[in-house]
Write a structure and sequence with these properties.
14 helices; two-stranded antiparallel sheet; homodimer; 361 residues; alpha/beta
Chain lengths: 361, 361
């Protein structure tokens, strides 16, 4: 079992800790990460602010920090140049210096937006990720990817900027809307499928309690999923190679998000459908492997909108816009067994159409 | 004497070469740096484009590249969010991938703007600096600093993004306007003062020929100045410590640029005045050192506008906005002898006023 209280992300001079603890100990953890109390900036959104902003600023103030809170609108639309520019203006207006940390209190949207602001202000100020969604605690807050969307695609503008600390309180996950919880579970299942047969068995065994957010199970599940992300990131900081396996289901999934219009499917729902397609592709490429249990778990992840309306030729075309496409070739992360992923080029459009059909019906 | 054809910037996985050669060999050098011919983007400005854009694109095309040229207005105003956003739109509209290099053909403005675009597109694409000004060849194109200006100050938004290659043709310096040449010499003198007594003697010995841009002297001068920048950068990639010595004269100089309005003084002229102030400060702090020769060379650097009109209390206040100010303390790079720099905190405003007076009269 993974240590449920701290994970070390080993990146040489940019190493950092992921700590799982009550929000009340966040300021202490910041000191332990080498940040000296002074001014700090807390970026959050309108959903999270009423729940946790006051608790966090109170803790920060008690330990000598002077927090300034900026509350953005909730939702994917906030990952825009408009909101980034507004953050730059407000934070630079405070007269910050290079030691002033930016805390991202929220889910993936806040983490990506505030993270890119931290990456680009004064060519980089310290970033503390305080993820409050499941997807952020196990995935997006770990690994340094930050950025905003562009008219031509998601996450096309951004930076790799490693946080100084990731501080995650699993208790806050109890207040997540149901659809965000199950969307986050898609990335949890993905981490198991690409990297850990034993974690996959853990998910199978405890699946009902996991869907119910059982407080006895959630902290271990979150820590084990985060551990996988941390390990893959440490092997490949800027996605030159190995890190690509984290995109299992994502080449298909990004096409769904793009085609359906961002927000119609949650990211996790698109990844769920994408994993179903990628499992079909894996079965084509590795006919001797048994993916039955993987298909069952991927099918147990709820997807709210009906995907049958999506147009397969348009989805295939949309995949060519993915920023991981290199020199016009489509690449996919596939499994050769449960718990082990690899990258393959695929040119066969009839095969891809079959994978889409398996995922969408 | 430094090797006049290539310098290695030692930054581990982010190491790169600075090559001094005729523009015609740029595409070959890109291949040697590991870039594979395909689409590339050349960002330049309206002054440089008529002189060198066609020559560069021709060479690129001959070796299998498909260059797309983007020409920005010349001048500091171009280092703005407006122009950055336009670059993002145009380059993403091309459907680039993560291997598509951005070439910055121009001076410091183009290098900083195109460099930050390269840093932020798809979380980082390869950057080739092709500096055409003296200040860019010996200073701004080396070391990975990129960025744009903000209403609250210069270079407040940006990233450290190391180039894959710096390719500098000293012959293009012959077409520089006179004031840009002498402005670039300010950084050359600065490099000698902070790091190399022997290079300082070289500058003294050849000063008249240097002012005349003697083609026998310029390539060695450029290579030796660039070598100093490369060495300091290699010791401190992200300006945590040692790299600060490159800001000799800059805390004063930035205040002049801010107070006089950007463009009234060139950056080099502001640095020249700043170095005169910093030499006065050095003489206060190290009364046994002899800075006579340094003062003479700093006085031999032309400054076109009359600095006597500048208001000293306003300049002192402006220094507190510098992004190197940490926790509200003013820090200065000073010399304890010619060729050796260090950082000192200074609180004495009367002393600073005396330094300003020495520099501005």
């Amino acid at each position: 079992m993974a240590d449920a209280s701290a994970i070390h992300v080993n990146l040489g001079a940019r190493s950092y800790a992921i700590r799982f603890d009550a929000l009340q100990r966040c300021a202490l953890a910041m000191e332990q990460a080498g940040l000296l109390p002074g001014r700090c900036v807390v970026v959050t959104d309108e959903n999270v602010a009423p729940l946790y902003a006051r608790a966090l600023t109170q803790v920060l103030s008690e330990r000598g920090w002077t927090p300034h809170v900026i509350t953005c609108p909730a939702g994917e639309q906030t990952k825009s140049l408009h909101h980034l520019s507004a953050l730059w203006d407000e934070i630079l207006g405070l007269g910050i210096d290079r030691r002033t940390p930016v805390l991202a209190l929220g889910g993936g949207v806040v983490g990506d937006l505030a993270g890119f602001a931290a990456a680009s202000l004064l060519r980089g100020v310290p970033l503390v990720q305080v993820p409050t969604s499941l997807i952020a605690q196990v995935d997006s807050a770990i690994g340094g990817k930050t950025g905003i969307n562009h008219a031509t695609g998601k996450n096309l503008i951004g930076a790799f900027h490693q946080p100084t600390l990731v501080f995650a309180d699993p208790a806050v996950l109890q207040t997540l809307p149901a659809r965000e919880w199950t969307s986050g579970l898609a990335e949890v299942v993905k981490h198991a499928l690409i990297a850990s047969p034993s974690f996959f068995r853990f998910l199978q065994t405890h699946w009902t309690r996991i869907l119910d957010r059982d407080v006895e199970i959630v902290p271990e599940m979150v820590a084990r999923a985060a551990q996988i992300k941390a390990k893959v990131v440490a092997e490949d900081e800027t996605e030159q190679g190995r890190r690509a396996i984290l995109n299992f289901g994502h080449t298909f999934g990004h096409a769904i998000e793009r085609e359906a219009g961002y927000g119609a499917f949650t990211h996790g729902e698109a990844v769920t459908l994408g994993m179903r397609a990628a499992l079909r592709l894996s079965a084509h490429l590795y006919p001797d492997a048994d993916f039955t249990a993987a298909r069952q778990l991927a099918s147990a992840l709820p997807v709210h909108p009906n995907p049958a309306q999506l147009d397969v030729p348009t989805l295939t075309k949309a995949m060519y816009f993915d920023k991981k496409v290199k020199q016009g070739r489509l690449r996919f992360v596939v499994l050769d067994e449960i718990g082990h992923a690899l990258v393959r080029d695929v040119q066969d459009e009839a095969l891809l159409a079959d994978c889409w059909a398996a995922a969408l019906t």
